[in-house]
Amino acid sequence: MGSRILATLAVVALVPATAACSSTAHGPRSAPVRPVAYERVPADRITVEVFRSDALRRLEYAESDRRADCLSRRGYPQLAAAGPQRGEDPFAGMNVAAPAYATADEQRLRRTGFGRNEPAKAAHVLSYHRGFDRAFERCTQEVHRGLGPDFADVRERAYALMNTVTDELSTGSTTGAGAAEYREISVPVLDCLDRAGFRPRPGERERHLRAYGVGVPTGTLTGAPPAPPKRVPGTIEVLPAVPERVYVPTPAEVALAVATNRCARATGYADRYVELRLRDTRRSLERHAADLGALAAQVDTFAARLD
Fold first, then answer.
1. What is d(CA 166, CA 173) in angstroms, rounded to the nearest whole number?
2. Which of 174, 198, 206, 247 lies in disulfide reach of 115, CB 3.0 to 4.6 Å?
3. Largest CA distance in the chain
4. pTM of the full predicted structure?
């Protein structure tokens, strides 16, 4: 029997509605939606004002909590006992900001290099139990009827849309028409690193920031990793919460991170990066304005049912 990892929080991309929407027997249906004026959305507000991840997190939390209550009523209290499932917002990266190595203070970079701590993880449930799995499916259907019969479909389409925008941005900055602009703004930083005595890593054939190791963590995490699940057929396993694990960079990583920060500040890299990234993000959002608007109207209907 295969395993099912349960109560994993997933946050879906949302955008603000710009027209009224109606609900039918088949779920929320959007009226025609005017395009969002993306050029006026601040770089640090895209997640909230365009993708509306705050509203989606409320829906996901409601889904998780209601499903746990439903399972408890059916004799399976494990999800409720594991506690509320609250994860990081996967849409946070849609906001536009310069890389931390270009803007962070040196003291932080000396502590973290190019890495980051691994966030604490809540307890979660792993099922190898057919009865639990059947109850889980029935409860999921019950919860979705309450949230809206098209909720799962809207979530799937939102993820697909977010991935499309992300892929367009990645392609545009590495191999697309705008790639030369990103390479151009990195040249002064690379020249500065050369003068500071840094060189590309062995085997690198192209001259770019990652070739020098910029942004590449090479340190370690403190503390033991989570114990692997036992995976016993016919059981419902509650995996314990895992505390935060602190990232410790290597001395060489710290030296490169500090030097990169100084070079980036001296050459104005951060401002230019944000300018290019924000332009490309807005262009991508405009290309998908119709889909974003339709999705927004549906999600607003779902969110209104929670109030």
1. 11
2. 247
3. 67
4. 0.82
